[in-house]
């Protein structure tokens, strides 16, 4: 179970990745590389919504955030320690 | 069809140096359509318009179609052989036979057909062409055939052939269901005997008054998107000095010689001076308020009131413009302010209507940052929203709506928007029904009463609307109220009775 601070950090990273992709090639290539594009994209949008206060999330949301984070990180070339960083915390 | 504004023409005749001032103003106001429509537009203005329209061949074509267009522009267009230019140029009545033959030989079929029409109209040479086209199947006939049948003097052989063998056919594939018989009845050159024959065969000329009655000269100097403030007082006075009826609304101006006719009434109403003088003072009285109707090809600015707004309120959405007093809403006016917004439920649908699912909609976006309002819109959707909220375990907060609405406002088409309209309280209004001398009020009232008998239905309704406004106005003098009562007009009487409720 992640606490609120951990979720915020996760969402901020997701947001940072999306900004990075936007600044570079745009999200076209990223979407094309996904099998479960809708869930990943919704995850990224929910992350922004959480940070901006437009949505409130629940435990059900967390796996979608994690999946979005992982996919974005892979796309941004930042794969190091991602699994450890968040999945371990999630298992606790 | 080119139009003549008698007041513009008179003002320039009376003071020729005004021509430059007025046309420079119109060029500055970007009144291109008006300048092209006005018969008196001088060649130098048209040449400037032509130069300004360098990226718009269609507009350049319209300039070339104006009878005052400079010859060198015509020659240059004839050599270019561009369809867009020729479409306009071919209608220029100053073209010579040689010009028309050149266009007839051009690769643009439509322009070539029109050239043929102008070249052969009312001439026996049209006969072989008409007979040849009639021998073809409808879908293979030249569209110009119906123009020959409707407008050109026809030989007896052609008339006889049409009546004997073709009355029930459509003239060409562009004839939109009209039969050759219907088209032939429109021909003004038909002999009385032929007309009777057609009548007996069931073809009678249809009344086209509706189209004709809207061909009044424009009052474009007054109704421009730059609005009245852009017209300097001295110029306004020049128009009033040649009898423009808008002088009726100024206390200091005399309009003793004003003739009561439809053109003058049209000019008075379309100056919007009555709207300003009456509506502004009625807002807030007896529930009178301004309203705006916006939608696909609909942009109506009008009023709400128990009696005066009833017909508009009950009219079909697309037909509101036909009610008396209704103004085109797409013109910017400094005397009013608009609040443009999109209601929350419609805002979300701007995004959700882009596709069946969120993933489908994402195809329209290249950036994550652009897609965010669309995601929120799908969560708020009344059909798909609940399933999505459950699946992702989220609830939507109140702060989501402004995000969706702001983004929707940027993406929406004009017709998706709602517009609230109100008086601009910072506008320094000089027009007032309240402050007009009683003589002027009586003159306006009599002019509008004349309007009740106009053949033009829109003008008639406009006159009725403003008489209704005068009936409602609390400062309308008793002699006028008595006069209005005697009209026995349903709307006016109902409005007068509001004073006693």
Short description:
The complex is a heterodimer of chains A (about 90) and B (about 500). Chain A is mostly helical and about 90 residues long.
Provide the fold topology.
The complex is a heterodimer of chains A (92) and B (501).
Chain A: H1 4-23, H2 28-32, H3 37-52, E1 55-56, H4 62-75, H5 82-91
Chain B: H1 6-14, H2 18-28, H3 32-37, H4 43-52, H5 57-64, H6 71-80, H7 83-89, H8 97-104, H9 109-120, H10 126-134, H11 144-151, H12 156-166, H13 180-185, H14 192-200, H15 209-212, H16 233-241, H17 262-270, H18 273-282, E1 289-295, E2 298-304, H19 310-314, E3 327-328, E4 336-341, H20 344-352, H21 358-361, H22 368-380, H23 385-392, E5 395-396, H24 400-411, E6 418-423, H25 438-451, H26 457-472, H27 478-485, H28 490-496
Antiparallel strand pairs in B: 1-2, 2-3, 4-6
List keywords for this structure.
heterodimer; A: 92 residues; mainly alpha; 71% helix; globular; B: 501 residues; 3-stranded antiparallel beta sheet; two-stranded antiparallel ribbon; 28 helices; 6 strands
Radius of gyration of chain B: 28 Å
Number of strands of chain A: 1
Low-confidence stretches of chain A: 78-83
Q: Output mean pLDDT of chain B.
A: 89
β-sheet strand percentage of chain B: 5-15%
Report how far apart the termini of chain B are.
Answer: 50 Å
Helix-and-strand structural type of chain A? mainly alpha
